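Weekly sync, protein design subgroup
Attendees: M.S., D.O., the rotation student, P.L. (late)

Item 1: inverse folding check
M.S. brought a backbone from last month's batch and wanted to see whether the design step gives back something sensible before we order anything. D.O. pointed out we never logged the input encoding, so this time it goes straight into the notes. Structure tokens as presented (205 positions):
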């Protein structure tokens, strides 16, 4: 199978159960939305290729974790070697702020390196919301995290979110010191800065 991309970013999706982690991932990877709830068992993998800055193809590799309490010990193991993390919460549920704190603390306890973190306030299409965008941004600011309010159902700000996190990962990427969760196709030297301007790279699996 032939795959074309310039960089591969390993991304982790975490958060409470039923918050919309799989829906968010499915919207990005397949542009689909399923209204029935099928809880994730353990961890699911999916990927897609996006374009950033109109010139770089990024393969986004998603590790979509289960939010049910029984699976939380499994999530701990997936922090290793990721370039970015989405913490997805359902802002149409009371208690969503406490859940953001819980998952931020979970991240701080088990994190590996310094990935770019974006908290996603999902289900913005719902009538009653328990966190507005300004408060969400203020809440995550002291950690240096990004925040976005989205609807996976109606595709509001979902593609924007993957653009923002990918651009931020790329802009913070220093080949000499920070390659965590970032890979180039086989045969390309990750430590050579000129790879950033490279075009039309092909890799074979
Ligand atoms: N209204 C609305 N419903 C959504 C949205 N995103 C997800 N849902 C619904 O919320 C439910 C849970 O979505 P999932 O994506 O399965 O949630 P999850 O976080 O992956 O759940 P676990 O895998 O159990 O941790 C499903 O019924 C989805 O259809 C959204 O943006 N708006
Ligand atoms: Mg899921």
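Designed sequence read out in the meeting:
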């Amino acid at each position: 199978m032939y795959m074309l991309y310039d960089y591969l970013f390993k991304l982790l999706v975490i958060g409470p159960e039923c918050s919309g982690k799989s829906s968010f991932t499915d919207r990005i990877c397949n542009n689909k939305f399923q209204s029935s709830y099928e809880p994730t068992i353990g961890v699911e993998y999916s990927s897609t290729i996006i374009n950033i800055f109109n010139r770089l193809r990024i393969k986004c590799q998603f590790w979509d974790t289960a939010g049910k309490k029984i699976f939380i010990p499994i999530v701990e193991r997936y922090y290793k070697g990721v370039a970015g993390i989405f913490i997805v919460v359902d802002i149409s549920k009371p208690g969503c702020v406490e859940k953001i704190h819980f998952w931020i603390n979970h991240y701080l306890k088990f994190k590996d390196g310094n990935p770019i973190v974006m908290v996603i306030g999902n289900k913005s299409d719902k009538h009653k919301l328990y966190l507005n965008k300004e408060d969400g941004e203020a809440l995550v600011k002291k950690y240096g995290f990004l925040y976005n309010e989205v609807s996976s159902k109606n595709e509001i700000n979902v593609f924007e979110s993957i653009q923002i996190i990918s651009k931020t990962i790329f802009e913070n990427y220093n080949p000499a010191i920070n390659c965590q969760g970032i890979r180039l196709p086989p045969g390309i030297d990750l430590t050579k800065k000129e790879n950033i301007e490279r075009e039309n790279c092909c890799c074979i699996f």
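Discussion: The chain has one domain: 7-200. Confidence is low (pLDDT under 50) at residues 196-205.
Action: P.L. to compare against the previous round before Friday.
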